[in-house]
Specification:
By secondary structure, this protein is mainly alpha-helical. The chain is built from eight helices and two strands, in the order H-H-H-H-E-H-H-H-E-H. Helix 1 crosses helix 7 (about 105-130) and helix 4 (about 40-50) runs antiparallel to helix 7. The termini are far apart.
Length: about 190
């Protein structure tokens, strides 16, 4: 598991310095197994929390985006709107985790928040570098702050819901357009 995280981190670092290379491996979008492997970071962080006294209670709350999903609303959005909503949600998680990390005095908690922040940054790279036709880049305004949380465990759970919900459904919506074109199976 640590090897897959290291590999994804290296891909992100390398591609962030090469603008002409797309940071999102097409396999992330086309194969759910790859997304599940990457999402395993949440369980690894929870396992690491077990050996970290006082790691669950954060000294400052993390502002969380709305991660719930109404399929009727989701289906009425364009791919660009869905992508913008996922990006905005990831950015809100990133900002909240960064703020909590800056406020903590527990060394173990700082490491956990740094690891989570790195994972969020990887997802942001993948989603932002996704090339969509007719992408106007207009941000979605449907992401609203739904709560704040001082439990790192609950923050991880909410992040997992974002990955299993909106991000996964975005990937499903992209299957026909991105995967068939990229793999020559149009």
């Amino acid at each position: 598991m640590a090897y897959s995280r290291l590999l994804l981190l290296l891909i992100g670092v390398i591609t962030s310095h090469l603008p002409e290379v797309q940071a999102a491996p097409i396999d992330f979008w086309c194969y759910s197994l790859n997304r599940r492997v990457m999402a395993n970071m949440i369980e690894e962080l929870k396992d690491n929390m077990a050996g970290c006294v006082g790691s669950d209670t954060l000294s400052s709350p993390v502002q969380l985006p709305k991660v719930g999903l109404s399929m009727a609303e989701w289906e009425n959005k364009t791919i660009q709107q869905k992508r913008s909503e996922v990006i905005r949600s990831l950015e809100m998680f990133r900002d909240g985790v960064h703020g909590a990390k800056n406020q903590t005095t527990v060394e173990c908690q700082t490491r956990l928040l740094e690891q989570l922040g790195t994972g969020i940054a990887n997802y942001l790279l993948i989603v932002k570098r996704l090339q969509l036709q007719n992408d106007t880049g207009t941000p979605s305004h449907s992401v609203v702050q739904s709560s704040s949380q001082t439990s790192l465990n609950k923050v991880l759970d909410m992040f997992g819901l974002l990955l299993k919900g909106k991000l996964e459904y975005l990937a499903i919506d992209l299957q026909d357009s991105v995967c068939k074109v990229e793999h020559g199976t149009t």
